[in-house]
Amino acid sequence: MSQPIACSLSPDALRDRVDSISALNRGYLRTYMLERATLRLVYDVTATPDVHALVASEQECCGFLRFAIEESENAIELRIDAPKNDDLDLEPLFAPFLSGAPGLAKHER
To answer: Does 6 map to a domain?
Structure first.
């Protein structure tokens, strides 16, 4: 049985989470890329502990998403994969992960 595509956070907890992601993005997000059902967020390496904490928190409330982290000397990349479903509107699903970063150029593949 597949997991429902819904966040399990309460409205207040979701607002707090989005505020936290916004702060992370405003301080450390370098760029992002959206390719079909995959969002890649590239952060400054100094955000490494915060990115790991974000993934740990998100895995608890949004188990339908898959997260992967790739670290390098200068950056940390967070990859978020949504379920492959042609009927799924990905924009609202990925929107919380892009909050606080409106000035960045999005790279679509």
So the answer is: no
